[in-house]
Design goal:
Number of helices: 1
Number of strands: 0
Order of helices and strands: H
Structural class: mainly alpha
Largest sheet: none
Distance between the termini: 71 Å
Shape: rod-shaped
Length: 48
C-alpha cells in the first residue's frame, strides 16, 4: 500500500462530509449552484 493511504482518504472523506453538512444546513440540492433568474419579471397583479 502507498504511504498515508488511509490518512489521505480520511481527509478526503472529512472534506466531502463538511460539504454535505453545509449543503444540508442550507437546504441546497447537490446539482444546483444557486438560483437563476430568467430575466422575465412576473407582474405583481396577474389580472392586468
Amino acid at each position: 500500500m502507498a504511504d498515508n493511504f488511509l490518512e489521505r482518504h480520511r481527509e478526503e472523506y472529512e472534506q466531502r462530509k463538511q460539504r454535505w453538512l453545509l449543503r444540508k444546513k442550507l437546504h441546497l440540492h447537490p446539482g444546483k449552484k444557486g438560483t437563476h433568474r430568467t430575466g422575465v419579471d412576473k407582474p405583481e397583479d396577474e389580472a392586468l
